[in-house]
Design brief:
Distance between the termini: 16 Å
Helix content: 25-40%
CATH topology of the largest domain: Aminopeptidase
CATH class of the largest domain: Alpha Beta
CATH architecture of the largest domain: 3-Layer(aba) Sandwich
Shape: globular
Bound molecules: glyoxylic acid, manganese (II) ion
Length: 436
């Protein structure tokens, strides 16, 4: 595939686009449930506010906009009858989040539209007189729930778009006991209409997403951009260990059934078993003891487990090994344990054609090189994991200094964002040269 630039845009135009992305990341960071940190979860007032901002920015570009039945904000430009190439990422965050995870990808997609749009001719379909001269329309989607912060189940927004919504999810609850169903109603969405968010394969040409790497590989290699080969498979569990809450002073060791100690051993077993396997990572991110008093032996512990791997089979074997280990630990300590799986997503492999156009976009953007641009497997989850069920998926990674993410220190440079915008725009143009 050619590495020649297809984009007619001066470097200062792209630099200005990158500055706008950085400024808007700051602006969105201020839309938070917590004054001292960034926290924006699914179906919250902050979710509604960022959707309104994104819709405004989409309309400024001449896009037709709507909020879909799952609360995803969508903008579309181009022939209304053509299938769409979807670009985007998510606007929801983890707790105490950074500014760029997901957000940068949505804003970069809007800059790609700005670079590619052209005035529509007389009588040509378009809103406010703008269109794209491509064999497909472009849709930008700001997904509403990629992280799963509020209900534990990730990818709710993109699963709705992929048509893989599961009605069992309606009964998931948040930390305050609010069900997903009730949260929909409170947000002004109708659970009965969730199916309307689903897209058909023939409506889409593919899905392309730019995202910060969320790991150190590009930073270590001194490379600004990479092609993503696949997105890790993931499973998430909520685990409960039950023992007996008794007096901290009066209960001798031979009578204690301390749930915290059993759960702590379990957390260490997660590290031991996962780290012995290539490419498997397991994280206990939430850990809560009950009744949670200084002078009471913990009678119950609830904790989360997030498990990821490059391949589904390896990931599942590790879970089976962990379950056997938990049986052993809890048996030895006279405790009981149970688990509930709240999220499961298979590994998704990026489509060969979209890998090629992303590589072509990188080649057209960066100085010539004799070797191919870097190719990385993503250990982090992305909306493409859900969208892979309905369309081809491709991803572009941006260097993430020190690999810090899901943390307020998360960063990306304006220079790399400029490279990323250009590479994504070139990739879209390259996709447009292919037959659909
Ligand atoms: C999302 O960022 C995830 O990988 O959990
Ligand atoms: Mn994230
Ligand atoms: Mn993300």
């Amino acid at each position: 595939m050619s590495s020649a630039s297809l984009l007619r845009a001066a470097p200062d135009v792209i630099a200005a686009a990158a500055r706008r992305v950085m400024a808007r990341c700051e602006e969105l960071a201020r839309v938070s449930a917590d004054a001292a940190s960034i926290e924006r979860v699914y179906l919250s007032p902050e979710h509604a506010r960022v959707n309104r901002l994104a819709a405004e920015w989409m309309r400024e570009l001449g896009m037709r906009t709507w909020q879909d039945a799952a609360g995803n904000q969508v903008g579309r430009i181009g022939d209304p009858a053509a299938p769409a190439l979807m670009l985007g990422s998510h606007l929801d965050t983890v707790l105490d989040a950074g500014r760029y995870d997901g957000i940068a990808g949505v804003l970069m997609a809007l800059e790609v539209v700005r670079l590619l749009r052209v005035p529509a001719g007389d009588g040509e379909p378009g809103v406010d007189g703008w269109t794209v001269r491509l064999p497909f329309a472009i849709e930008v989607v700001a997904f509403s729930d990629e992280e799963g912060t509020r209900f534990g189940k990730a990818l709710l927004g993109s699963s709705a778009v992929a048509g893989t919504w599961n009605d069992a999810w309606w009964d998931l609850t948040d930390a305050d006991g609010v069900s997903l169903r009730r949260a929909f109603l409170e947000f002004g969405l109708d659970p009965a209409r969730i199916g309307e968010a689903a897209r058909r394969p023939d409506e889409l040409v593919g899905y392309l997403e730019a995202h910060i790497e969320q790991g150190p590989e590009l930073d270590r290699a001194g490379e600004p951009l990479a092609v993503v080969s696949s997105i890790a498979s993931a499973r998430r569990f909520q685990l409960v260990v039950e023992g007996e809450a008794r007096h901290a002073g009066g209960t001798p060791y031979d009578m204690r059934r301390d749930a915290l100690l059993g759960a702590s051993e379990a957390a260490l077993a997660v590290e031991r078993i996962c780290s012995a396997e290539h490419h498997i990572v397991g994280t206990v991110g939430r850990f809560e003891a009950f009744p949670g008093a200084v002078n009471v032996i913990p009678g119950e512990v609830q904790f989360s487990l997030d498990l990821r791997g490059e391949f589904d089979g390896e990931r599942d074997r590790v879970w089976d090994a962990l379950a056997r280990e938990l049986d052993e630990i809890m048996g030895r300590r006279a405790l009981r344990w149970r688990s509930r799986e709240v999220h499961s997503a298979p590994a998704v492999f990026c489509a060969p054609l979209l890998r090629e156009v992303v590589a072509g976009g990188i080649r057209a953007t960066l100085p010539p090189r004799s070797d191919a641009p870097p190719v990385i497997f993503s250990r982090a989850g992305h909306d493409g994991m859900a969208l892979g069920a309905v369309t081809d998926v491709g991803m572009l990674f941006l260097r993430n200094p020190d690999g810090v993410s899901h943390h307020p220190d998360e960063s990306v440079s304006a220079g790399d964002v400029a490279h990323g915008i250009r590479a994504l725009a070139e990739a879209v143009l390259l996709r447009g040269t292919e037959r659909i």
